[in-house]
Design goal:
mainly alpha; two-stranded antiparallel ribbon; 23 helices; symport; MFS; MFS_Na/Anion_cotransporter
């Protein structure tokens, strides 16, 4: 019976397909646990504190305990997530390389889900308790993002990694779905239900993750021998031979590597723009153009949906181009990175000049994030090209910088619009975005690389420095080689 079930499981879905599905759902729910508070907090505080709700609307609110948090406390609760988040980006990536992504990603999600369920109780207890809880929740989720890169190095052949990394952009899809769902829960059941529902979903996913996912094909108990050999052979072919696990991290060579800094700086510039657009768009639309975008669920979800769609499209074409040999890995990464970052930079210039129109502004921001989704085919997958053994460490470094960028964008907007929130003051924000995007694109264009770095195997006297990951052999070629080996 066990054998039959195992056979049915592997015939219906391959283990790699299951991994893709679970990673997509994982990043959807990851962002769900992150943004649920940003929606629920509007109803958690007294309406006369935030001035976001009219008297009539207040009467229709479900009878729940609400909190007299002033604006400073309100924003501190929202920002406390990042206090813990920035601490575990780099350690999370390195720990995934050592103990495996299964424990780091799954464990981080499980703990964050449990803390999410405890959020209402924390809020009832004390204001400082919820501050600490959200910081600890950020601590666990911060480790999850860089953990996926080391898993990709074990499961995904080099020429298919752009598509796999695009799964991370399911976070945008998660945000797009979470907004209207949480809004419905708040209006029908109350704000506390948001945390109970999203927390339970996260726990269920975590249990499934530990039951279905393993760190490598060799460790998976249900994988077929054919699938395991196919994955391992393709990875070995693409990387020029099997890589042994390094005994130490070549920190000096990592920090002196221009291709690494190209990833870190470009990621920081791109995410700075992303956070500014997503977080500040509702404020700009409401204060300057007197159009409350948050009232329209479709418009508030459009930027997230647009980015995810482009991530899938760009990653598919990037892997096709690399497999065909029409573009080298270096050229592919540079083309898609430039495309994904330079176009939003140009669109921000349009916004700075003609941004007084609400319809144009929504279109500019949505199209900007749509094109930015192509980063999955550019720098976002690049750490797996240049150093698959340390891809988690590199992504952790990049995401740490980008997290500070998200915080910095809110401070810049606050300073520039402190006196008055008008189009004249917001112009400076848009021109800063133009400079940031263009700088990131040019820096990567100059220093980015798709070549496997020698320090990826620091224990070896002679590495693969200067060689790109090779296009994979076709299925007929692999089958022909097997036939020859069997005859021999």
């Amino acid at each position: 019976m066990v054998v039959l079930r195992s056979k049915f499981y592997t015939d219906f879905l391959t283990c790699r397909q299951v991994l893709n599905i679970m990673v997509i759902l994982g990043f959807m729910f990851n962002y769900m646990l992150r943004v649920n508070l940003t929606i629920a907090i509007v109803d958690m505080v007294e309406s006369n504190t935030t001035n976001n709700t009219s008297t009539n609307a207040t009467k229709t609110r479900i009878d729940e305990t609400r909190f007299n948090w002033n604006p400073e406390q309100y924003n501190a609760v929202l920002g406390s997530f990042f206090w813990g988040y920035v601490l575990t980006e780099l350690p999370g990536g390195r720990m995934a390389e050592i103990v495996g992504a299964r424990k780091i990603f799954g464990g981080g999600m499980l703990m964050a889900s449990i803390l999410t369920i405890l959020t209402p109780a924390a809020a009832y207890l004390n204001y400082y308790v919820i501050l600490i809880l959200r910081a600890v929740l950020g601590f666990f989720l911060g480790a999850t993002w860089p953990a996926i890169q080391p898993m990709a190095a074990k499961w995904i052949p080099p020429m298919e990694r752009s598509k796999f990394i695009a799964n991370m952009m399911a976070s945008s899809l998660g945000a797009a779905i979470t907004m209207p769902v949480c809004g419905y829960l708040i209006s029908t059941v109350g704000w506390a239900s948001v945390f109970y529902v999203t927390g339970v979903i996260g726990i269920v996913w975590s249990i499934m993750w530990f039951c279905l996912i393993y760190d490598s094909p060799a460790e998976h108990p249900r994988i077929s021998e054919e699938e395991r050999e196919d994955i391992e052979a393709k990875i070995a072919d693409g990387e020029g031979g099997k890589n042994s696990k390094p005994s130490y991290v070549p920190w000096k060579r990592i920090f002196l590597s221009l291709p690494v800094w190209a990833i870190i700086i470009t990621h920081g510039c791109s995410v700075f723009g992303y956070f500014t657009v997503v977080n500040q768009l509702p404020t700009y639309m409401k204060n300057v153009l007197h159009f409350n975008i948050k009232k329209n669920g479709l418009l508030s979800s459009l930027p997230y949906l647009a980015k995810y769609i482009m991530a899938i499209i760009a990653s598919y074409f990037a892997d096709r181009l690399r497999k065909s040999g029409k573009l080298s890995t270096t050229a592919t990464r540079k083309v898609f990175t430039t495309f994904a970052i330079m176009i939003p930079g140009c669109l921000m210039a349009v916004q700075a000049i003609w941004g007084m129109d609400a319809t144009l502004s929504v279109a500019v921001f949505t199209i900007s994030l749509f094109f930015n989704g192509a980063v999955t085919a550019g720098y976002l997958a690049n750490a797996l090209d240049i150093a698959p053994n340390f891809s988690g460490t590199i992504f952790g470094l990049a995401n740490t910088l980008s997290s500070f960028g998200g915080w910095l964008s809110t401070k810049i907007v606050a300073v520039l619009t402190a006196e008055e929130s008008t189009f004249a003051t917001w112009k400076y924000v848009f021109w800063i975005l133009v400079f940031t995007y263009v700088f990131g694109a040019l820096f990567y264009l100059l220093f980015g690389s798709g070549k496997l770095q020698k320090w990826n195997n620091p224990d070896e006297a002679y590495g693969q420095d200067g060689k790109e990951l090779q296009p994979l052999k076709s299925k007929p070629e692999i089958e022909k080689e097997r036939e020859i080996n069997n005859i021999a």
